[in-house]
Amino acid sequence: MRFRTRSSHVIDLIFPIALFFVFAASSLSVLILAANIYASTTHRLAANDENRTALSYISEKIRQSDAGGAIGLSKIDGTDCLTMSAVYNGTPCTTYIYEYEGMLKELFINDGVSVSLKSGKDIMEIVSLSMEQLEDHIYRFTSVNSDGTTSSLITSERSVP
After folding, report:
1. Three-state SS annotation for 29-70
2. pLDDT tens digits for 11-60?
């Protein structure tokens, strides 16, 4: 009985190598796509967080200062400001929250002292912040972050005079 030996062809070597390169290229392209999706998702989440953080900060400050008629809006040098009045140790004081030169700022001063917007404490970066009073004791705050993403918050005073 005679056994036949199989002769080796070039295709027997090229096919597994080609299959390996197709698999490697597919794996690399899936990896690149996944990295791009991850980067864009984290970028969107960070932009969203910037707006939500600024608006949450404003909301929390309103809740902390919520006393009958203590909260209002004013314009100082053409800039919208959230004003929160209080009395500390017998001295009337006002807290201002506003956007100035790309920063959300807070300024706490005694009443009667001249207000300088650049003197406020930097809270965080923000492109713009608009404020409007919708009704008595109901306010809308709209922030725009560095991405151009816009978020709004409608809030109200709980203790009204």
Report:
1. HHHHHHHHHHHHHHHHHHHHHHHHHHHHHHHHHHHHCCCCCC
2. 778 988 999 999 999 999 999 999 999 998 888 787 777 778 889 999 99
